[in-house]
Amino acid sequence: MAKYVVATPDEIPPGERKVVDIGGRSIGIFNIDGEFFAIRNSCPHQGGPLCKGRVTGFLESSVPGTYTYTRKGEILRCPWHSWEFDIKTGQSWWNPAQRRVRKYDVHVESGKDIDASNSEREKGPYIADTFPVTVEQQYLVVEVE
Amino acid sequence: MDNEDGLANYALGTSPDFVQAGLKAIDCDIHNEVPSLQTLFPYMSDFWCDYCSHSGFRGPEANDYPRGAPLTTHPDAKPPWDIDLAHIREQLLDGWNLEYGILNCAYRVQSIHNPDLGAAIAQAINDWQIEHWLDPEPRLRASLVIPSQIPELAVREIERVGEHPGFVQAILPVRSRTPYGNRIHHPIYEAAVRHNLAIGIHYGGAPGNQPSPTGWPSTYLEEYSGMTQVFQAQVISLVAEGVFDQFPELRVVLIESGFTWLPAVMWRIDKEWRGLRNNTPWLKRPPSEYIRKHIRFTLQPIDAPPTPKQLLQIIGQLESDEMLMFSTDYPHWQFDTPNDAFPTTLPGALARKILSENARAFYQL
Predict the structure, then answer these.
(1) Over residues B74-100, mean pLDDT
(2) Domains parsed from chain B with CATH numbers
């Protein structure tokens, strides 16, 4: 499990996203109401740049003519064919069991912890890509297998 | 010529192989055409009889199936307007030992621009069907003719006679003023479900709109063969507009639509739905699943591919053996010999489903 420091939390305000390249993968990090989620920037349909798609809500209907729109900001639509994905789970709307985008663990760590952890290990699982880590700061860390 | 031999056999009452093998069929498309407008006068009020007589109205136009066109009548059947119960008993019910026959009267009340006249004629047709067809012959079931140009009037007619046990469906012409999924039609479906009636959608109709998506064709060949496009539009509309979500009990049969085009339509609408599904958030499953669950197709005319193997492949592409229901389209001429009415090359289990089991389940016979 490799960990990558990808951003500072204030770099991605609620409703925003950042797409980064780490470990040969393109990954999108999303801030939904202060909570961070990371998914692969590749649609499981045909490999479109999913994380550059439109963020929307979840539309349901019990009978024709009624519209229930919830979870605004939590659904991502691929820019290529408009398939919908749940940013929080990576599942597609139309086939959640089989069509899903890879989801990654992302969390906030302090520069102090990262620094300490880094110095503990010889080879260092942390690769602070473009980030000079300082002990005073908080960072978003993505874990990739 | 084979063709002539076949016709000669038909005239002599020869039945297809499946009948001789002891299999009973349910014929889902027998036409009981109204002989003339005057036939209906005994069932119409004095006012409407006088209205027709004084205005010179001779009945709705039927140029989507013109009298005398080669397809109108099998050469050894009587012309449609001369068909009576005795004839259908002789050539089909007894002749082919049918279990049931479903009558589809395609009198085009829906193209009558005076909706009250349309309703009066629909009412007369249904009373005529009860007296001359349903009550005398227990093997027959029939389609309610409804003035669907005004859904409220159509509902009224369903309420009036929908409980008669002989009526198993209400029939609509495939050509309509607006697609049948549109919500203006939903009261018709609500009434049909309440009276346990299926909805039959039949070839033709003359609502005033062009019979193709791109304009008026120049020839009957174009209109006749192009009607599949109208059927496709209706299938897509019914599913997309959520008719089957609103009315989960609704059963629909397309009559004389052909079915070999259906796999491609299902593939296409499923594919598009994945990206456009929030146009139609009421759909809970891929559109093709609604089609397979709710829609059936009569067999004739088969848009048959060149080989029996290819026909089986297309039936396989439907991914359901429950969608096809045997029909002759009698007395119209859609097949040359009795054996052409039903492909003899189908596997036994599938053959039995198509011949009778699917229709028995669909019409709850």
Answers:
(1) 83
(2) 24-362 (3.20.20.140)
CA A139 from chain centre, in angstroms, equals 14
pLDDT (0 to 100) of residue B74: 65
Burial class (CB in 10 A: 0-12, 13-18, 19+), B101: buried
Kindly tell me if the per-residue pLDDT of B72 is higher than 90: no
Distance from B195 to chain A by nearest Cα, in Å? 21
* Interface residue B246 vs chain A (CB under 8 A): yes
CA distance A88 to chain B (A): 19
- Cβ proximity of B197 and B363 under 8 Å: no
Domain of A105: which CATH number? 2.102.10.10
Q: What is the pTM of this model?
A: 0.90
User: A8 is in which domain, residue-wise?
Assistant: 2-144
Mean of all residue pLDDT scores within chain B: 90
Residue B6 has pLDDT above 60, yes or no: no
Q: Which residue of B has its CA nearest to A66?
A: B282
Among B282, B288, B290, the residue to mutate for chain A (most A Cβ within 10 A):
B282
Q: How far is Cα of residue A138 from the mean position of the Cα atoms in its chain?
A: 17
